[in-house]
Amino acid sequence: MSRAQISFSDLRTAAYCPRKCYYQRTRDADREPPPEVEAIRDLATRYEALLGTPASALESEPIAVSAVRYREQLETTRQRLTDGGHWERLCTPRDRNVLATGRRCRGIVHKVLTDPLEPALISAGKPPEQGVWEPQSVYAVAAAKAIAWEHQQSVERVWLEYPAYGVVRSVDLTTRRKARYRRALRTVRELDGPPARTSNRSKCDACEFASECGVRTRTLRSLLGF
Fold this sequence. Notes:
By secondary structure, the chain is of the alpha/beta class. The chain is about 45% helix and about 15% strand. The chain has 11 helices and 6 strands. Strands 1, 2, 3, 4, 5 and 6 form a 6-stranded mixed β-sheet that branches. α1 (about 10-15) packs antiparallel against α8, α1 packs across α9 and α8 crosses α9 (about 175-190). The longest helix is centred in the middle third of the chain and has 18 residues, at about 135-150.
């Protein structure tokens, strides 16, 4: 593979499943997020307004939990981040949806915060019980490195927002996370043929390349034990 900059999305996918990344890069796969994803991302620009929205109106928003539960989680998030001096920074970032180009990778950073310089990324999915998912950890390191390269400043932390759940997590750039990023970068650069299939076949159930990949995904009947 060439030494061209790798996209954030390729790194994230490679960390999840290298074989899926291979198919995305060699097929004419649609990389644009669906409208429902954009609607969820928009929530991250309206946190204060959402906290004041009546429950009946909040139910019509693209939230993933009940209106009562959502408000509780978002209020808890606001209190925690306000105590740390970060709530205002996340609600009023210096820049939004910036194309960040680093030495080795490039992609969209949803928010750029200052004092200190930190990127914030928005996930349309569900957060894990603790921390962030490993592919998102790789994504976070990539975004941090790209922003740091552009601004010629060190970046030590990234924010991961899950606006459909009212949850925000911080991601420190640890040695382990940086190693996972380098591994994903190496994986993408060495994709000159389809890698081995993943041993975690649960990843295949919703994959658009499952039939081409040759795996048998589980049917509802098999999941129910029939």
